[in-house]
UniProtKB/TrEMBL annotation:
It comes from the Eukaryota. One of its GO terms (cellular component) is plasma membrane. The gene is Upk3a. This is UPK3A protein. The chain crosses the membrane at residues 188-211. Residues 225-246 are annotated as: Disordered. The keyword Manganese does not apply. Keywords: Membrane, Transmembrane, Transmembrane helix. The keyword Oxidoreductase does not apply. Residues 230-246 have a biased composition (Polar residues). GO terms for biological process: urea transport; water transport.
């Protein structure tokens, strides 16, 4: 169906999507079934580009239907046209992942790998001289992208089918520190608990300090009163008249 196009992954399986630098997409389950032939080997290519690049070029094949191998670096991160962001096997339409398995900690990782692909998830490939795979570096924040899946015959490396370009998908915007809401309603439960514990601790510390100061002052007053009493007793003794023995 030529109306099919890449979609963002379901929120149940990809929370916080998109992020500042990544976008999680559903893999193309059952999109290319009509183009698959028995005893043939295929690979799915994923192309990405910035929305603004459509005015320059959105072509992903040459005039012989050969897929373009444009890289992230060559297209300036998708500003100048599409780049190949990923290559993976055709998802098995007859055996899609079971969303219920996400609740099983032993299966959730495999389910996510089968179900979605995260564009912008490789932070090292641009700076690794030994990296030979397709490079999928972080996307730009607050930027709109489009994506396309392509079915490629591995024998002659010819495009056999492709989806439409996706709808525009925008990465999140970086929040300035002065605009971040630090009110209680925007804090997590853990932060509130920690803040409460620290507040109680400071209160107890101040209470102990004040009690110590009061105790010290009271001790000094008692000592001063005792000193005055002793001094007065001595003075009275000295002023008492002496009785003559004669």
């Amino acid at each position: 169906d030529q109306s099919l196009k890449p979609q963002t992954a379901a929120a149940q399986l990809a929370t916080n999507n998109p992020t500042l630098t990544t976008i999680a997409l559903e893999k193309p389950f059952c999109m290319f079934d009509s183009s698959l032939r028995p005893n043939k080997s295929y690979t799915v290519y994923l192309y990405a580009m910035m929305e603004s690049a459509i005015a320059i070029s959105s072509l992903v094949t040459d005039n012989r239907s050969k897929p373009l191998d444009s890289t992230f670096q060559q297209t300036s991160g998708g500003r100048l046209g599409p780049y190949k962001a990923a290559m993976f096997n055709v998802p098995n339409c007859a055996s899609p992942p079971n969303p219920a398995d996400v609740g099983d900690i032993n299966k959730v990782s495999d389910v996510l790998k089968q179900y979605l692909f995260r564009v912008g998830d490789d932070e090292t490939c641009l700076h690794d001289p030994n990296f030979l795979d397709v490079c999928n570096p972080p996307l730009a924040p607050d930027t709109t992208y489009r994506f396309k899946y392509m079915l490629v015959d591995n024998t002659d490396c010819i495009m056999k089918d492709q989806t439409l370009w996706s709808d525009p998908i925008k990465t999140r915007r970086v929040k300035l520190p002065m605009k971040i809401d630090t009110g209680p309603g925007r804090r997590s439960g853990g932060m509130i608990v920690i803040t409460s514990i620290l507040s109680v601790f400071v209160f107890l510390l101040l209470s102990g300090f004040l009690a110590s100061v009061c105790s010290t002052v009271r001790g000094l007053e008692d000592s001063s009163a005792e000193t005055r009493h002793v001094s007065q007793t001595i003075q009275q003794s000295e002023l008492r008249p002496q009785v003559s023995s004669e």
